[in-house]
Amino acid sequence: MISPRARHSRQLFINLTDFTCLPGLINTHVHFDGNPEDSVDYSIYARRTADETLQLVLENAKTTLLTGFTTVRHVGAWFPDAVYRARSLIERGEALGPRIQTAGPYLTIPGGGGDLTFPEIPTAQIPPESQQGIASTPEEFAARAEAAILAGADFLKIIASGAVFSIGTEPGAPEMSQADIEAVVAVAQAYGKTSHGACPQ
Known about the structure:
This protein is α/β, with parallel strands linked by helices. It is built from six helices and six strands.
């Protein structure tokens, strides 16, 4: 408890000289497989090779650890396989990075917020890896969710709350039906996982 005198002093110091502080912020929302400047030209995602994406993930993971974040949630990815590979390298001590919990691919409708679909990326150039979570029916969503868990997802991310970048749908319309969402949640519960909904950002 801070004393009234300390509370009203001009400065309050906590001496941590004898301690190592590791925040371990597990709810930090990160996307290692991209850079902020990529939003200027999304076609970069179609031009990077799998190995280049892996190196980008490892670079961002190292920076995150050196910044002081020891545990993070990688909340959705266009390139989940690169994140899985990076996580394995980090766990084996072959690369620097925080402990990573990952949702694997985005679970979303075609053209939805988690689909790598933009006017500057021709359909033929969209990497198949980025489409791992795309589905249109409850049955497809259940299959995509199960595949994500079996591939190594620690939890699931669904983009269902109202078109983020949605293309070809009514603005603001839900991206997934209630049945779609229930199908994903059922799979998550069956495997002892949690579902993590995302709102537009």
